[in-house]
């Protein structure tokens, strides 16, 4: 997936740079400054990848998206407004499409160049199935961490994915995208 690629790419670069530094140092007349430069770049790539993972975990753990009770029969506008405000500092072009009653909205946002064709769409739905009649040990709309796992309505389908995509926006924007990333968040998938 594109998200895994954003993490794996710097790790692969770091491994290649470290191998290159090893090869340089094995040579009889080793170019130590070049090896040191490769190792420093490898460390920077590892830091980049670990920073991405750290931001994704933190964003998910905060549980903000799970806290919005976007049960399919109810409005999702509070979550949509939260996402729109979250994207504002990154210059995202955000469009909303409302249902007939204006109680629900789809969000389509573009991060990166607006004049470039194509791009990558990260799509997820914001609604969750009702919790009525289900035996929850915890509040389904409060993120709970237990045994290294995160529990809450929507963590697996699809608020966890949306959280990962949103957590990556700062990194993607900082990389100077040549093609846009589009976020498409919809309602009424769980009807």
Give an account of the 3D structure.
- With 191 residues, the chain is α+β, with helices and mostly antiparallel strands.
- It has helices at residues 2-26, 32-62, 64-67, 77-87, 159-174; strands spanning 93-98, 105-111, 120-125, 144-146, 149-151, 181-186.
- A hairpin with a 2-residue loop joins strand 4 (144-146) and strand 5 (149-151).
- Helix 2 (32-62) runs antiparallel to helix 5 (159-174).
- The longest helix is centred in the first third of the chain and has 31 residues, at 32-62.
- It is elongated.
- The two termini are 27 Å apart.
- The relative contact order is 0.18.
- The model has no long low-confidence stretch (mean pLDDT 86).
Please supply descriptive tags for the structure shown above.
46% helix; two-stranded antiparallel ribbon; alpha+beta; 191 residues; four-stranded mixed β-sheet; 6 strands
Mean pLDDT: 86
Poorly predicted residue ranges: none
* Rg, nearest Å: 21 Å
First-last Cα distance: 27 Å
Q: Which SSEs are present, and which pair or pack?
A:
Layout: H1 2-26, H2 32-62, H3 64-67, H4 77-87, E1 93-98, E2 105-111, E3 120-125, E4 144-146, E5 149-151, H5 159-174, E6 181-186
Parallel strand pairs: 3-6
Antiparallel strand pairs: 1-2, 2-6, 4-5
Helix pairs in contact: 1-2, 2-5
């Amino acid at each position: 997936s594109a998200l895994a690629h954003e993490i794996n790419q710097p790790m692969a670069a770091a491994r290649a740079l470290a191998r290159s530094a090893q090869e340089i140092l094995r040579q009889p007349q080793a170019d130590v400054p070049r090896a040191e430069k490769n190792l420093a770049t490898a460390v920077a790539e590892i830091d980049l990848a670990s920073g991405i993972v750290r931001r994704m975990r933190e964003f998910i753990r905060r549980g903000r998206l799970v806290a919005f009770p976007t049960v399919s029969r109810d409005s999702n506008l509070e979550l949509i407004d939260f996402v729109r405000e979250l994207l504002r500092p990154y210059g995202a072009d955000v469009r909303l499409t409302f249902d007939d009653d204006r109680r629900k909205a789809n969000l389509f946002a573009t991060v990166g160049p607006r004049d470039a064709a194509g791009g990558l769409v990260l799509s997820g739905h914001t609604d969750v199935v009702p919790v009525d009649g289900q035996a929850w040990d915890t509040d389904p709309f409060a993120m709970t961490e237990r045994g290294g796992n995160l529990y809450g309505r929507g963590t697996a389908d699809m608020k966890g994915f949306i959280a990962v995509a949103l957590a990556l926006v700062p990194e993607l924007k900082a990389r100077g995208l040549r093609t846009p990333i589009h976020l498409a968040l919809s309602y009424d998938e769980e009807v």
